[in-house]
């Protein structure tokens, strides 16, 4: 699996319990963070070195859920766009990892909770979607990558997190991994002015996801919009 996010901590809010389950089952998971989150935080005193601190926080959070392969593209926080430069870097990373599943933030705005739809989140989703089809599987897109031996590759599945609730069609039961998720989010200490309130809200959201997904009372879930890109149900080239 290859997971994309706009900022450090996005993955941990959106999918870290699911990822913890995957790594525990032996799956290989890689992260690619598009910005350094250098506009995040709540204290002016934290501004010097915030980008480096947020990289360290994301690396620590990833280790909590069993992920050690974390790359950063270093785009400026708050100004992310689905440019050719960004899409090319995403295509390169996909071709290097060659994942069975790509996870990404959603390209569509969510009006039920606007905080999910930071402009950088939407730009991440759009850039990853453009990379997944057709660029990553087209050997004539970014031919310099093909010439360097970074071969084109067909992504089977694209999972979105942090999108509109009405589009979510996969609810992953993460009961038992709630503490791991909360620990991963809490690792981003520069981003939490009220840690206890954040932790309680995260647990509430997991229970609400489970309810929406039809899981039994007392369960927890993370929610996704899953799209088949190259599966048994799709036709190559269409």
TrEMBL record:
Keywords noted in UniProt = Zinc
**In its keyword annotation, does this UniProt entry include Zinc?**
yes
Could you state a single Gene Ontology molecular function term? Answer: hydrolase activity, acting on carbon-nitrogen (but not peptide) bonds, in linear amides
GO BP, sorted A to Z: glycoside metabolic process
SUPFAM superfamilies according to UniProt: LmbE-like (SSF102588)
**What start-end ranges are recorded for coiled-coil regions in this protein?**
none
Q: Which domain of life is it from?
A: Bacteria
What is the name of the protein in this document?
PIG-L domain-containing protein
The scientific name of the source species is Arthrobacter agilis
